[in-house]
Amino acid sequence: MAMLEAAATGQAEWLKRLLPRFVGQKEDMVFRLTDLAATYDHTGVIRVVYKWWKSSGERGAIRCARAKSIAAAKGHLETVKCLLDPYGVDTFVPHQQALKHVHSDMVEAMNAAISSGKFAIIKYLNETCKEELYQEGTNHKCSFHLTKAIECRQVDIVEYLFSNGYKATVFEFAFSAAVSYGPFEVVDLLCSKERCSPKAIHKGFVVAAKAGQLAIMKYLRTKREFDEAAAFQHAAGCGQAEVVQQLYSEGFQISSTTLEEAAMVAGGGGHLEVLKLLYGKRTISDEVAVKVFLSAAKDNRLRCSDINDQVGVIEFLNAKGCISSDVII
């Protein structure tokens, strides 16, 4: 279609002549045209489309959410400004009202920019939208963008957001994301902020164990001593056999209670490799084995990975000869 070609090639004047002839669903056409304009960084096309929308008698501003995310992901700063600037195009409503109505659009655009590492877009959105960008989420200060940057291993973006958009109230969420996903540089960055209380570091150690982050666990040990029982249990429950083995090799003295809890969550989660490892280190009583068997049979334990071989756990315990026929029945 000629209009789509004009939008894709940035021929705003040609598009201006074609639009009055269009017969069809205007809103859908606006979305298609602005998506193309955002893809190829044609701000002139966007302005023409907005003005056509207004002149056609349609009520209200058009959001073009997908176009915002496309432009943000590609790093097209001027296009993002054109799509978001409430004063540059007269079809927009006043600034604060516009921010209120398109909050979700900007959150998605910010997310797209973070995923693609487009720092200029992130800086613009952060400075333009300010608090509006962070109003939803835990503790009324959305940690989504910061944790997304951590997950995407965008260290420079993490440092910027942490210094220019987030308060201490989200530190715990950021730190948990960092020890879960890495990279190590982010964990070191957050620890260097001197906001890591002993409680936060201990929780981070447990989270790192659940995620199988051995290097980060080693680093956190340089910060303080740990009671490793909680980390051991959570690692077992999440199928992190390597972490369980490492804790054993470092001389962790496992109590009977901790062993039983670890076996329960490992068996219930279907983590056969971990269960075999636990059996290889210490004798587990028949009474506990029955509890593990029933836990696996019920299939209702927390799982933190894709490993969930409950059948394998049941077969393993049955082969040990510690499960009587009346338990099976």
UniProtKB/TrEMBL annotation:
<protein>
    <recommendedName>
        <fullName>Ankyrin repeat-containing domain</fullName>
    </recommendedName>
</protein>
<dbReference type="InterPro" id="IPR002110">
    <property type="entry name" value="Ankyrin_rpt"/>
</dbReference>
<dbReference type="InterPro" id="IPR052050">
    <property type="entry name" value="SecEffector_AnkRepeat"/>
</dbReference>
<dbReference type="Pfam" id="PF12796">
    <property type="entry name" value="Ank_2"/>
</dbReference>
<dbReference type="InterPro" id="IPR036770">
    <property type="entry name" value="Ankyrin_rpt-contain_sf"/>
</dbReference>
